[in-house]
Amino acid sequence: MRVLLCPDKFAGTLAANEVAAAVADGWREVATGDDLLIRPLADGGPGFVAVLADALAGRRIPVPTRDPLGRPADGEILLTDDGTAYLESAQACGLHLLSAAERDPKATTSYGLGTLVAAAVEHGARTVVVGLGGSGTNDGGAGMLTALGATALDGAGRALPYGGAALADVATLDGAPRLRGATLVAATDVDNPLLGLHGASNVYGPQKGATREDVLLLDAALERWAAVLEKDLPGCPPGLGGLPGGGAAGGLGAAILALGGRCESGIDLVGRAIGLDTALDAADLVITGEGSFDHQSLRGKVVAGVAGAARDRGVPCVVVA
Q1: How far is CA 1 from each of CA 101, 106, 306, 316, rounded to the nearest angstrom?
Q2: Of 64, 105, 159, 182, whose CA is between 20 and 30 Å from 213?
Q3: Whole-number Å distance between alpha carbons of 24 and 21
């Protein structure tokens, strides 16, 4: 029997390749004659660059950056020969970079991601693919834009402090993002909009440390921020707060859309890079998985993409969680 092993990471415990290796070791103990094909996956969250680096020819370039509280952090970009750079927001904005006591989306910033994007552009990337997921921020990409040269100001013309709560006072955007014509692509793990009941603050704010009062404040602040982006950022699409994918990674998806970028399914992007369709065509059984399997798993995450593709081929699929 041909068994395809294509799990996501188990957040906080095992990388995707480690999950696949563990499942493979156990499988071989009881089914020594089966043919195992290992294809670790990512959907834009932690591990995005590592999975792609194993599948694509390119250079991994270390980039010093900042974590959600402004402390030094290690980041990297994967630059391929066709001028595409891949990076992951979690290296700068990741929830895993914060202790439980430090989780406060009112104060955390995406500034470090802007540093990574700027580095990709400086290295000559014409397309910058940003893996979104696993973030500890809820600032709608305001910190990222600041690092790129566009600063959020209050009504008195003062630069706002970092963090999602400060956006309640945003009045205008000063400066222009320095992208040198590069195109941005958000590899998203969710399709939630920026605002509302299914938006970034309501759905993901609590796991980042937000109380119910914080959620209401943050959602209102992001509504104000979206209005400013539509007003002051040329090319920003109308109705930014309701666009699918805008709520990914605390609103980073919306910031990329506002910059003229587009959202693309992370699982589809990675799947093409690793030859997932070919592997699925040859499989008799598919095993995927992630650290926690719940209702959120069905909104554009690895297991949903893999299970759907297996279903379309009439191949049984098992989820390990």
Answers
A1: 48, 51, 19, 12
A2: 159
A3: 5
Q: What is the pLDDT of residues 101-114, one digit of tens each?
A: 999 999 999 999 99
Q: What is the CATH number of domain 2-39+275-320?
A: 3.40.50.10350
Mean pLDDT computed over 11-27: 91
Question: φ and ψ at 171, to 5 degrees?
Answer: -125, -30
* The pairing of beta strand 72-80 with beta strand 58-66: antiparallel
Q: Domain-by-domain residue ranges, the chain?
A: 2-39+275-320, 48-266
Return the closest-CA partner of residue 108 out of 71, 69, 73, 145: 69
Give dist(CA 6, CA 309) in Å, integer.
12
Task: Note the pLDDT tens digit of each residue in 32-89.
Answer: 999 999 999 988 888 999 999 988 989 999 999 999 999 999 999 999 999 999 999 9
pTM, entire model:
0.91
